[in-house]
């Protein structure tokens, strides 16, 4: 007998390194320092599912390792090239699409000089060797990582099926409890095979396991049940079709594990093997049962977390939905589209409502005479607190907007309100250190008849203006400080300035919050983050391609125009001015009683041209007479000069002289010829009023402008009072009415609905 090593030349050749590695049932892969594959043996080709792979062309990461494990491959290379040994588990997708878990060990390959010249990797399929107990912990860790990264029930269950088929099973069913019902959520099978109709229950079907079925026992006893060999035992089947397909595919073995969390039963996980695949062992054993039970525990926790998260997400979405406008009003001369996307959840925290709700908001507010307020805003931060602040600010702004004051005045009031919202805080010495929330806001008022856009800005990104296919940022001369941050002692009127533009027909404005352009790069892209200027350029370029499309299309395109992952919630508001001219009439009159009839006549003629229904036209003419008459009477009785401070007593209350003594609109009957003559004589010939009529799609608006600064209000009239009922009549018969200050005085307006054209 020869000693080891004392061999013939033929035997020595047979025992060469290459020959031994060709026979080994262990994958061996050799790479250089740059992870380029230099060699791998035949078993590596079989394990990674890449027959005939031409090594030397790609690196180890690209051979079969799943994309989500690429960072792990980079970590392996860095660790080993420093002279260390690495061991761990990879997810591998074979060339045919099947997924397996591979246990690998990597060691440095050294030159005779001792320097590290490459990496030697040995690998095998986990759970398929005598080291199953060792592999178990590694796989459980990997499965836990996969499940921990999922916050949605459907995604979690799909990941479970992906991990178990075909690695451990040919068939995987997962059923969850919905009240008292057990409903199938997953039905995954090896190689894309699908059960014939009317055999195994499909996804969404209610599952009722008969008494004595092993799955029923697992659910009732709350323990993992193993059926090692179906040829040795018999169980009742769910249906004849299920029994038939069991025989056709040759189901050999099964494990059913209950999904339990927090003492509650969430459902079942059902795994089985069949003759659809050729496995070394077609039967599960006690070790597999314990391992699947351990997996089920982790799956149950992940499903429970996902269910809780989805409940919180539903709460968050409902919360946000009710804080934002439920539906947009129909407005003349404007096309509107809005989008809101909640913040992406923080996968590592899973604090649903804390991470998805944000402080971004938009609003469209109908104002007087068909004018509209347009709002976009963003409260700094995210979570329920930011959303609560946003809800209060939106409600406050809507209330302030009804005063019809200029946008700069509205932002000044909103700034004061933002400071009120701050919770009082003091430092250790009692000094006030209250920190108001920081809010950016853009408030605009658009008049579709004049196409005039007035606006003020509180630190918000300027909207994009789309005109004739060109997309640019709206030129804003004065961008004020965000709400809540102006310096103490500086009045808000000095911070927020009003500007005015005239929009051409068909012009489009795209208002947005910074969540639209402030994106994270995709994890797998490896590209650096874009700065905001570059992101805005990308947005402009993408929008310019569809500038002539409908506003809904522009809103959809804007949400995905900037590449990257959404990191913050975002609001988008797209408004487009109409291309046609809206109908209106306007005339100036001396503030004399005789002009009331002229104003009424002008209104009647306009309503006839606009085909206003006779009943609605007469009602509008009645209210025109009421408003104009009172403006004339007030102009005639007012003796104090406008804008002059009277020091010897308060000015005459406006409501005392606003209303005409009777509801009749015929001045001859109310005052008589002598009364009219007296008022005409007392009337100031320099005082005038303007009557403006506007025709909308479903309403007509009447505005009366005069030069008095005092705004009217309704007052109660007693039984014997001759006045005090004019505004009451307007309030009762008009859909809406109001008054607003103007640069030269005030305007009183009302709206009468007339239906469609």
Automatic annotation (TrEMBL):
The keyword Hydrolase applies. Signal peptide: none annotated. GO terms for molecular function: phosphatase activity. It holds the Pfam family GAF. Keywords: Hydrolase. The keyword Membrane does not apply. Residues 152-313 form the GAF domain. SMART domains: GAF, PP2C_SIG. Residues 331-577 form the PPM-type phosphatase domain. It comes from the Bacteria. PANTHER family: STAGE II SPORULATION PROTEIN E, STAGE II SPORULATION PROTEIN E-RELATED. This is SpoIIE family protein phosphatase. It comes from Herbidospora solisilvae.
């Amino acid at each position: 007998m020869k000693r080891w090593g004392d061999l013939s030349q033929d035997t020595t050749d047979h025992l060469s390194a290459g020959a031994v590695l060709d026979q080994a049932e262990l994958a061996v892969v050799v790479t250089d320092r740059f992870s380029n594959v230099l060699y791998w043996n035949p078993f590596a080709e079989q394990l990674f599912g890449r027959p005939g792979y031409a090594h030397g062309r790609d690196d180890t990461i690209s051979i079969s390792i799943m994309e989500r494990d690429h960072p792990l491959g980079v970590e392996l290379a860095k660790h080993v090239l420093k002279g260390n040994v690495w061991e761990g588990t990879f997810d591998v997708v074979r060339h045919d699409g099947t997924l397996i878990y591979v246990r690998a060990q990597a060691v440095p390959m050294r030159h005779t000089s001792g320097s590290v010249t490459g990496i030697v990797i040995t690998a095998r399929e986990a759970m398929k060797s005598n080291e199953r107990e060792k592999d178990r912990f590694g796989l459980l860790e990997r499965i836990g990582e996969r499940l921990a990264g999922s916050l949605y029930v459907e995604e979690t269950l799909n990941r479970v099926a992906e991990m178990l088929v075909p690695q451990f099973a040919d068939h995987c069913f997962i059923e969850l409890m919905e009240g008292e019902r057990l409903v199938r959520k997953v039905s995954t099978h090896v190689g894309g095979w699908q059960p014939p109709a009317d055999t195994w229950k499909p996804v969404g079907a209610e599952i009722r396991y008969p008494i004595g079925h092993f799955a029923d026992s697992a659910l009732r006893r709350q323990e993992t049940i193993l059926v090692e060999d179906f040829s040795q035992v018999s169980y009742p089947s769910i249906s004849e079709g299920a029994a038939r397909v069991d025989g056709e595919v040759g189901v050999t073995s099964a494990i059913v594990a209950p999904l339990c969390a927090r003492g509650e039963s969430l459902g079942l996980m059902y795994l089985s093997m069949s003759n659809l695949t050729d496995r070394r062992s077609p039967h599960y054993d006690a070790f597999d049962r314990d391992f699947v039970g351990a997996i089920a525990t982790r799956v149950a926790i992940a499903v429970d977390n996902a269910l809780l998260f989805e409940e919180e997400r539903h709460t968050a979405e409902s919360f946000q939905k009710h804080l934002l406008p439920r539906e947009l009003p129909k407005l003349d001369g404007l096309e509107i589209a809005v989008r809101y996307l909640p913040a992406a959840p923080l996968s590592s925290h899973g604090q649903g409502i804390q991470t998805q709700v944000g402080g971004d908001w938009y609003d469209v507010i109908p104002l007087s005479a068909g004018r509209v307020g347009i709002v976009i805003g963003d409260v700094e931060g995210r979570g329920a607190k930011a959303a609560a602040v946003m809800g209060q600010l939106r409600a406050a702004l809507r209330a302030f907007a009804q005063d019809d004051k200029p946008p700069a005045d509205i932002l000044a009031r909103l700034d004061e309100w933002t400071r009120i919202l701050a919770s009082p805080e003091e430092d250790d010495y009692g000094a006030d250190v209250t920190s108001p929330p920081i809010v950016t806001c853009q408030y605009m008022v658009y008049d579709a008849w004049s196409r005039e856009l007035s606006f003020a800005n509180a630190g918000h990104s300027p909207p994009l203006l789309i005109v004739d296919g060109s997309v640019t940022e709206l030129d804003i001369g004065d961008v004020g400080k965000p709400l809540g941050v102006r310096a103490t002692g500086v009045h808000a009127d000095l911070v927020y300035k009003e500007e005015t533009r005239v929009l051409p027909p068909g012009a489009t404005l795209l208002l947005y919050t910074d969540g639209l352009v402030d994106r994270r790069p995709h994890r797998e892209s490896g590209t650096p983050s874009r700065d905001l200027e570059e992101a805005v350029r990308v947005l402009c370029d993408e929008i310019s391609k569809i500038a002539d499309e409908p506003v809904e299309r522009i809103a959809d395109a804007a949400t995905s125009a900037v590449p990257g992952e959404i990191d913050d919630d975002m609001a988008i508001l797209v408004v487009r001015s109409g291309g046609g001219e809206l109908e209106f009439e306007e005339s100036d009159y001396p503030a004399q009683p005789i002009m009331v009839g002229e104003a009424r006549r002008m209104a009647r003629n306009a309503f006839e041209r606009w085909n206003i229904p006779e009943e609605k036209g007469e009602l509008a003419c009645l209210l025109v007479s009421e408003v104009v008459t009172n403006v004339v009477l007030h102009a005639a009785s007012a003796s104090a000069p406008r804008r002059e401070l009277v020091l010897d007593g308060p000015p005459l209350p406006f409501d005392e002289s606003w209303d005409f003594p009777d509801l009749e609109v015929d001045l001859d009957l109310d005052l008589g010829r002598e009364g009219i003559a007296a008022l005409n004589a007392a009337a100031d010939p320099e005082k005038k009023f303007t009557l403006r009529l506007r025709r909308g799609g479903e309403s007509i608006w009447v505005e009366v402008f005069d030069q008095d600064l005092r705004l009217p209000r309704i007052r109660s009239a007693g039984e014997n009072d001759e006045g005090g009922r004019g505004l009451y009549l307007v309030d009762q018969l008009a859909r809406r009415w109001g008054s607003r200050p103007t640069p030269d005085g005030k305007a009183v307006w009302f709206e009468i609905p007339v239906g469609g054209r």
